[in-house]
Amino acid sequence: MLLAAGLLTCFSAANSFAQPGGRPGAKQERPFEVVAIETRDGVRLRAAFFASDKGKDAVPVMIIHEWGGQAGPYLPLGLALNKAGCAVLIPDLRGHGGSMTYPVPGGGTEEFDIGDMGPAHVKAMLTQDLESCKAFLKEKNDKEELNLNALTLVGIKEGCVLSMEWAVSDWNFPSIGSRKQGQDVKALVLISPEEIHKGFRVEKAFRDRFVWRLPTLIVAGKASPEADAANKIYRRLVKLRARVSRGDPEGLELELANAKLSGVALLKADPSVTGSVVKFVEDEIIANILQHRWVSRSE
Q1: For residues 32 and 50, is the Cβ–Cβ distance under 8 A?
Q2: Alpha helices in the chain (DSSP H)
Q3: CA-closest candidate to residue 191, choices 139, 256, 126
Q4: Measured between alpha carbons, how far is 108 from 103 in angstroms, rounded to an integer?
Q5: Using CB atoms within 10 A of its CB, is residue 107 exposed (0-12), middle (13-18) or buried (19+)?
Q6: 33-38 and 44-50 strand pairing
C-alpha cells in the first residue's frame, strides 16, 4: 500500500538546494518532494522523489544507499540525474534515516536497532522495501509520468549488493498473461561496490544470463578499499560477456577515480563521478529510450 505523498521531516541536505536566480535568504522551493511509502509488512519508508517533465520518456532511477546511510547525501546526484530528464527515487531503507520504526503486535511501533539487523532484515529490504518502491514507480508509470520499463538502479557500497540481488529477482519475476510485472531493470551503476553483505553476494548476478548483460557502470576510488572489488566485478563481467560478443564489451564501463574515498565521500570530493553517472545513463538508456517501450501496468 502506498501512502499519499506528503512533506515529512526534511532531509538534512535539503537546504543545500537553491533555485537559479533566487534572492539570497529567500525561501527556495525544493526540486523534489518527500514521500511516504508503506511496505506490505507495515514499515513506513521515507523517500525523496524528483519528478520529471518528460512524461512517458522519463527514465526512472532508484538510488540505493549504503548500510548505515540514508537518502539525504545523494540528493545532489538525484538532482543531476533529474536535470538530465530522469525521474529519481531515493528511499531510506528500513532502519535507516527517516525509516526507523516498525509496527508491533497489539499496536504501536518500535525502533529498528541497526546493530541487531541481520540477513532477515536485508531480505525484507529486497522483498518489502524495494518492491514497494517499485510499486510507487508503477503508479507513476500508469499516470504516464515515467517509463518503468527503463528502470536504472544506482547502488552505493552495500547498496550494490542489494541492487544486483534485486535485479535478478526483477528479471525472474513472471508476467501474468500479457501483464508485465518484471524485467524492468535496464541498467546498473555500482559505486564503491561491496561483494558481500550479511550473506548476500553479487555472485548471484553472475549466474543470471539477463543481469550480467545489462549496461553496467562501475566506479570506485583507485586507492579505496573497494577498488579490488570493483576490478573483480568488472573482470568477471568482461569474461561473461566475451561468451556472447567479440571485442570490447559494449555497455560495460569501469572508472577508477584518483582518490582513496568511497561512496558519498567520493561523490562529494570528485564531481566528475556524478558527471560520469549522468553521462552513462544518458548514453545507455535515455538515448535508447525507444527500445524500451512504455507499458501500462494496470491492464
Answers
A1: yes
A2: 75-83, 119-124, 131-142, 158-171, 203-206, 227-242, 263-269, 271-284
A3: 256
A4: 6
A5: exposed
A6: antiparallel
DSSP state of 144: T
Q: Residue 25: count other Cβ atoms within 10 Å of its Cβ.
A: 6
As a whole number of angstroms, the distance between CA 223 and CA 91 comes to: 29
Q: State which H helix or E strand residue 90 sits in.
A: strand 87-91
pLDDT band at 10 (very low <50, low <70, confident <90, very high): very low
Ramachandran category for residue 44: left, alpha or beta (phi over 0 → left; psi -120 to 50 → alpha) = beta
Q: Alpha carbon of 53 to those of 62, 84, 277: distances in Å? A: 17, 11, 20
- How far is Cα 194 from Cα 262, in angstroms, rounded to an integer? 11
Residues 164-196 pLDDT 10s: 999 999 999 877 766 788 899 999 999 999 999
Question: 170 vs 81, 82, 108, 148, 165, CA distance in Å?
Answer: 23, 24, 33, 12, 9
Backbone angles phi, psi at 24, to 5 degrees: -55, 130
Which letter, b or e, does each residue of 253-275 get, where b requires 16 or more Cβ atoms within 10 Å of its Cβ?
bbbbbebebbbbebbeebeebbe
> Looking at residue 21, what is its pLDDT?
43
Amino acid at 31: P
DSSP 164-208: HHHHHHHHTPPPBTTB--S--EEEEEEES--SEETTEETHHHHT-
List the CATH code of the domain at 30-291.
3.40.50.1820
In the predicted model, what is the mean pLDDT of residues 120-128?
A: 97
State if pTM tops 0.85: yes
- Give dist(CA 200, CA 193) in Å, integer: 13
